[in-house]
């Protein structure tokens, strides 16, 4: 459904008019085509009924939104609904600023949410703290046109095949066979999850605040060292190596032939490829000796903040119900590439007659990726000050890519600095039991 027609279509389903019960605010952190889709959903909700009105306010980024929400909560002028990203989950759970969404909406069939989408945002006993919204996961993109020019006729599925293809592309004169940005989410979190590797002890913090980082001792360390060597060989590039200066922009422009990227990147990539190249999207590559496990959910979920009256909470519930509808999830997937979060959406896509449409290309593959066999170490990440840790990890590993230290030294340093953050967080919440 086109964004321009979404509100009009929703208005056709509007019930009888009634007096407006509540004006509520929803703060979100996205920009670009995702922000356009969010605004369209807000307009559609307001057009579909007259009892409540939602005002959706962009904050520019997840991090900025998180900082502003904390400040607003302290000043008692915070929104009813706030979108927070995956890395801020534990901070929100222990903030005492939000109400578990499952407590507010106890009659919702929460078990309809796919395991990969809900695991990150639920308590140890399975209660959802927030409603998964713009859910992404890591996928593998290729420029089939460029691969075929180099004689590569099948899409690589293992890292061994990716590097073999990269060598063929380089031999054929391709300057950028594979591209990544070295982001923590891609090269550490998603890699570790699907290979069944822990990032930290205590099952990545789910079993206690006294967790310690262990990623520097797992096979993830070998993979990151491989990326350094492959970059030296001219097979892998990072942001700074590309003409575009950004890995997704480099892939979208045809500069780079293969990319590991978020499912949320698909819509922009597919649009950029129109009339120029053929795009493929599939499961992120594995090392051949490792069984595949689930990838983690990325993106963000929506929390209900404390301190609002009954009418505002009713408005929040109505908006969350609206976003959960299959047709709304279908719209959001088609507009952005983010993955549906409830199991009934795949059936709805199939019944729509557009199951094979490119606009839904990430739906089935994204759900398949997140629904692979799960281990206690691939459930998610429940570590304190994790937003800050991501910055530490990138800072240290970028030094390794720049040749200023070995990758192992970078990971050892990131582990040490990360553990310091964990101990500070543990002291801040001393005696607090994890949800």
TrEMBL record:
<comment type="function">
    <text>Part of the ABC transporter complex UgpBAEC involved in sn-glycerol-3-phosphate (G3P) import. Binds G3P.</text>
</comment>
<dbReference type="Pfam" id="PF13416">
    <property type="entry name" value="SBP_bac_8"/>
</dbReference>
<dbReference type="InterPro" id="IPR006059">
    <property type="entry name" value="SBP"/>
</dbReference>
<keyword id="KW-0574">Periplasm</keyword>
<keyword id="KW-0732">Signal</keyword>
<dbReference type="InterPro" id="IPR050490">
    <property type="entry name" value="Bact_solute-bd_prot1"/>
</dbReference>
<keyword id="KW-0813">Transport</keyword>
<comment type="subunit">
    <text>The complex is composed of two ATP-binding proteins (UgpC), two transmembrane proteins (UgpA and UgpE) and a solute-binding protein (UgpB).</text>
</comment>
<protein>
    <recommendedName>
        <fullName>sn-glycerol-3-phosphate-binding periplasmic protein UgpB</fullName>
    </recommendedName>
</protein>
<comment type="similarity">
    <text>Belongs to the bacterial solute-binding protein 1 family.</text>
</comment>
<feature type="signal peptide">
    <location>
        <begin position="1"/>
        <end position="21"/>
    </location>
</feature>
């Amino acid at each position: 459904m086109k964004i321009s027609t979404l509100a009009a279509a929703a208005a056709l389903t509007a019930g009888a008019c009634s007096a407006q019960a509540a004006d509520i605010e929803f703060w979100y952190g996205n920009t670009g085509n995702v922000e356009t889709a969010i605004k369209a959903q807000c307009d559609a909700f307001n057009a579909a009924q007259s009892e409540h009105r939602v005002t959706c306010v962009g904050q520019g980024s997840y991090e900025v939104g998180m900082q502003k929400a904390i400040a607003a909560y302290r000043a008692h002028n915070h929104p009813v609904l706030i979108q927070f990203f995956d890395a801020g989950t534990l901070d929100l759970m222990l903030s005492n600023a939000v109400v578990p969404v499952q407590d507010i909406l106890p009659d919702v069939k929460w078990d309809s949410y796919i395991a990969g989408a809900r695991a990150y945002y639920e308590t140890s006993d399975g209660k959802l703290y927030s409603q998964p919204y713009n859910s992404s996961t890591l996928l593998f993109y290729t420029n089939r046109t460029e691969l075929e020019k180099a004689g590569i006729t099948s899409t690589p599925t293992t890292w061994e095949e990716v590097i073999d293809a990269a060598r063929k592309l380089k031999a054929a004169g391709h300057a950028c066979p594979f591209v990544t940005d070295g982001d923590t989410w891609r090269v550490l979190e998603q890699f570790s999850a699907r290979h069944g590797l822990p990032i930290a002890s205590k099952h990545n913090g789910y079993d206690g605040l006294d967790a310690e980082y262990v990623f520097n001792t797992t096979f993830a360390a070998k993979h990151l060292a491989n990326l350094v060597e492959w970059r030296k060989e001219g097979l892998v590039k990072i942001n700074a190596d590309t003409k575009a200066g950004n890995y997704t922009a480099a892939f979208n422009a045809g500069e780079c032939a293969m990319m590991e990227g978020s499912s949320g990147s698909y819509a922009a990539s597919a649009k950029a490829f129109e009339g120029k190249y053929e795009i493929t999207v599939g499961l992120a590559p594995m090392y051949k000796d490792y069984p595949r496990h689930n990838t983690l959910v990325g993106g963000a979920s929506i929390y209900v903040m404390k301190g609002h009256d009954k009418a505002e909470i009713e408005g929040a519930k109505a908006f969350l119900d609206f976003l959960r509808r299959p047709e709304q999830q279908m719209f959001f997937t088609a507009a952005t590439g983010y993955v549906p979060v409830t199991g009934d959406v795949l059936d709805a896509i199939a019944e729509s007659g557009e199951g094979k449409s490119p606009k839904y290309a990430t739906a089935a593959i994204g759900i398949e990726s997140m629904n692979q066999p799960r281990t206690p170490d691939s459930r998610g990440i429940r570590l304190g000050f994790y937003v800050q840790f991501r910055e530490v990890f990138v800072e240290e590993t970028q030094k390794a890519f720049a040749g200023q230290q070995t990758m192992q030294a970078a990971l050892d340093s990131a582990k040490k600095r990360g553990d310091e953050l964990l101990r500070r967080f543990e002291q801040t919440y001393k005696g607090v039991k994890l949800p």
